[in-house]
């Protein structure tokens, strides 16, 4: 596991009261995580940030091992989805922060009990290789014999976005579990996260992929032969929420980090990183549609937490795991 520490010299005693070390676990890519940490430290140079990145499910496995060992290291989590954070909330592992500066943000983007907070909007659509595949308008259009072994699907057992997508679409009558059964019949083997799936589509190994919007839009802008479809049935979405652990050793700086992510400055960073901001006053990055032009599929986070074990088990059984 890669741990990168953003270095900053602590000032002598008598300076900022919040000076210290903040430990962050994140599922952001290494490049984006470094940008996030650098931007935070530019504003708070007295706070040293040590961070670890991995897929959300892998981070949760590490965290659960730390809980079992009585040695919980992170102060803050910045991960892909609300399901894992909802489970931690249920287990009493998150710290409420009622003073978080959510402003006028949509209440659907943060926990009603103020224990985790969305930082952006990332939808999952259908990516396709523009040289080898044609655009389609429906999730179910993927379930064609011509696409056997040709669809890259991140695993919800690894990727938080994929887990959120699974919990969302299985409750949409036009999609449901039948969609995943159809993928299995085409010998599709979900694995890894969005990065490998995008590489598979961009390289032509796969014709289509279930991939987060920003990854595809950035790749297209860089000249990769990929494009993105927002199917007519709608798209799942995550907010890449952040939360403070109830066991945090540095809750003061953890709150600074949450407020930074929610601030205008933090939201401008989201746009620069190529994602859709929560702040409705900011213009989305080039290549993104207006939110009014796509259909966002809701997800009941509490229900997802309650049924997660059964859903994971059915997913594993569907693909012969």
TrEMBL record:
CDD domains: PBP2_Fbp_like_2 (cd13547). It comes from Kaistia nematophila. InterPro entries: Ferric-bd (IPR026045), SBP (IPR006059). Residues 1-19 form the signal peptide. It comes from the Bacteria. Keywords: Periplasm, Signal. This is ABC transporter substrate-binding protein. The keyword Nucleotide-binding does not apply. The keyword Signal applies.
């Amino acid at each position: 596991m890669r741990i990168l520490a953003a270095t900053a010299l602590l000032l002598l005693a008598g300076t900022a009261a919040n000076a210290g070390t903040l430990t962050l676990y994140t599922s952001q890519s290494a490049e984006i995580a470094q940008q996030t940490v650098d931007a935070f430290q530019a504003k708070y140079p007295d706070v040293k940030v040590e961070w670890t990145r991995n897929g959300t499910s892998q981070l949760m496995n590490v965290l659960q091992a730390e809980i079992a060992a009585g040695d919980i290291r992170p102060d803050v989590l910045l991960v892909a989805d609300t399901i894992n954070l909802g489970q931690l909330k249920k287990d009493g592992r998150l710290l409420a922060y009622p003073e978080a500066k959510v402003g006028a943000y949509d209440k659907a983007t943060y926990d009603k009990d103020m224990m985790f907070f969305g930082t952006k909007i990332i939808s999952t659509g259908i990516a396709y290789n523009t040289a080898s595949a044609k655009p389609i308008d429906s999730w179910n259009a993927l379930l064609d014999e011509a696409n056997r072994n040709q669809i890259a699907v991140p695993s919800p057992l690894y990727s938080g976005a994929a887990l959120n997508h699974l919990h969302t679409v299985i409750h949409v009558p036009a999609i449901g579990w039948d969609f995943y059964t159809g993928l299995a019949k085409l010998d599709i083997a979900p694995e890894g996260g969005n990065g490998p799936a995008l590489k598979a589509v961009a390289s032509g190994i796969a014709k289509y992929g279930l991939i987060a919007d920003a990854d595809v839009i950035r790749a297209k802008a860089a000249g990769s032969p990929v494009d993105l479809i927002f199917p007519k049935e709608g798209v799942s979405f995550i907010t890449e929420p952040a939360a403070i652990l109830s066991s945090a050793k540095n809750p003061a700086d953890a709150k600074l980090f949450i407020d930074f992510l929610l601030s205008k400055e933090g939201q401008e960073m989201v746009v620069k990183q190529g994602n859709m901001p929560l702040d409705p006053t900011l213009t989305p990055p080039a290549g993104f549609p207006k939110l009014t032009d796509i259909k966002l599929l809701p997800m009941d986070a509490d229900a997802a937490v309650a049924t997660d074990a059964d859903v994971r088990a059915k997913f594993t059984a569907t693909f012969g795991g």
